Amino acid sequence: MANVRELKRRIKSIRNIAQVTRAMQMVATSKMRRAQEQALATRPYAAKAWQVLVHLAAQHGSRQGMHPLLSQRTPVRVIGLVLISADKGLCGAYNTNILRTAIHFIQSHEQPVRLITIGRRGRDFMARHGGQIIAEFSDLPSRPSVLDIAPIARTVIDDFLNGDFDEVYLAYTDFINTLSQKPTVRRLLPIMPGEIESRVMREYASDVGPVPSGGYIYEPDPQTILSAVLPRFTELQIYQALLESWASEHSARMVAMRNATENANALIGSLTLTFYRARQEAITREMIDIAGGAEALRQSM
Questions:
Q1: Residue 264 in 3-state DSSP?
Q2: 164 CB burial (10 A radius; 0-12, 13-18, 19+)
Q3: What 8-state DSSP symbol labels residue 211?
Q4: What is the SS3 assignment for 131?
Q5: What is the location of CATH 1.10.287.80 in the chain?
Q6: Parts of the chain belonging to CATH 3.40.1380.10
């Protein structure tokens, strides 16, 4: 059994760790609430923007002189993957899950996959494992705006238009609730308005219904509007995915720090019981030694 001094040192050390994890849990809880509010607030806007885009792309003549962001290329030679991870750890399996999903995506395609990483964890992991990283973004503000996402969207769109990518996918963690987050990979470019993508966007808002089929008159024309809307919509998709990922990250970190605090407190309780037993054993041993010494002294007299 460990001695009393070592047990006291371990209890003190674990109690200090528990205080740190408790503080980190409170900070993560505060950030989680703000991130969740921001992600949930933008979901209806993202869904309605998708409805408008689908309707525009379905208008008569919109496919004539198709916008480059709508054009499909065959064969697909190079795939781009925008990987969103965290800058920091201590968030449970959040980073592991999205990285495992990204690796599975890369291995399931014969074409080379080039990466644009958002977050240091994804960048460092892919760099260690030979990933082709062409751009990386990290240390974004804790409450990002669309302006913070603009350089990322510009990089993705330019590489697609220049032919560096034939398809672009987005790997992020979809926020479901505080205890559940889902790693997701979905197509970003070319934008393909259709039934499948409409179902995907319904995940952003449960009240999204079918796209209205009535005719509308657009001024100046659908092509001009698409030229202005499509880059903005691509930016919006990246922005929404980033908000979903950060809400998931802070939720995972809050849960991980709460579990760490509970485990530390449980370990402190177990070590405290062991400490009392060790101290009682030491006291009993000393009393036996004193009694034995007194008996020996009595017999020698």
A1: helix
A2: middle
A3: P
A4: coil
A5: 4-23+256-300
A6: 25-255
Q: Please check whether the domain covering 4-23+256-300 is classified as CATH 3.90.180.10.
A: no
Residue in 72, 68, 66, 121 with CA at minimum distance from that of residue 94: 121
Whether the model pTM is above 0.85: no
Start-to-end CA span in the chain (Å) = 38
The predicted-structure confidence for 86-121, as pLDDT tens digits, reads as follows 998 889 899 999 999 999 999 999 999 999 999 999
CA distance 198 to 154: 24
Q: Which tokens is 127 given?
A: 């760099």
Instruction: For domain 25-255, give the CATH number.
Output: 3.40.1380.10
8/217 Cα distance (integer angstroms): 78
Yes or no: say if 234 and 19 are a contact pair by the CB < 8 Å rule.
Answer: no
pLDDT one-digit tens code per residue, 151-202: 999 999 999 988 899 999 999 999 988 888 999 998 888 876 654 444 444 4
